[in-house]
Amino acid sequence: MGQPEQRAEGAGPFTTRLTWHPPDGGTAVWESRPARRRGVLAVRPPGAAAGRPTRADAVAVARLRRLNAVAALAFVVGGLLFAAGAAVAQFGSGDATECASIYFVGGLFFNTGGYVSLLQVINAPRHVVGGEGRLVTRPWRWWSYEPARVDWLGTFVLFAGTLVFAVNLLDSFLKGLSVQQTNRLIWAPDVIGCLLFLVSGHLGLAEICHGRPCVRARSLGWWIVAVNQVGSVLFMVSALAAFTRPATGDLVSTGIANWGTLTGALCFSLAGLLQLREHP
Question: Do 139 and 18 lie in a common domain?
Fold first, then answer.
């Protein structure tokens, strides 16, 4: 028996939507984000005008709900702590150790959110092409290497970004650094982490829009990725403004650095709140 006809869509080498015809007729459509976030794919029976969602089994649904809740809450709390740290720096005592401590705790929540987001992808139910149109739950895994999948690559880059931020946050406790050391040990990891966040957001938009620019006002997933990407842009603006000028030893703009961090962090918290609704 030959393989069913398939139509793949996506961004570059990544497949983000796959359409095929099950043996009993009709059409099955798998999309990357709905499948891994909500545990569904769309199946249109023969003669039907519209598709109906086919859900993963109870094990996968419970797994996705737990992981989604942990990741979302981690980004909500982490974002609020980063916003608090920036507010203290801008309006409070401005004590460097106090701000660094708040940022560091917030960074731990970002690390958690990044890794759990990766676990969501690793343990999401997988589609079966050629069957009746269903999702299969695989055994639990703590790690995988799947760079050919845009969802895995996007969340891996996000997690890597949170780890680079951790280097920046740890180094911010160091005392007596020269201007060159400050830029190398604190500023450079900050910029690299922001770049990784931006790349992750770009991959997230490519996953939802299937490789084409799009605005999907009715898509909760699109809003989550878009708000996160705005936060990443604001973080990058903050990082660039935090460069220490070698000639004077002053930041390019302390106000922009603090406000960029505060508003960007609030974007991540808002996206986390929206993510709480994106579950099976």
Answer: no
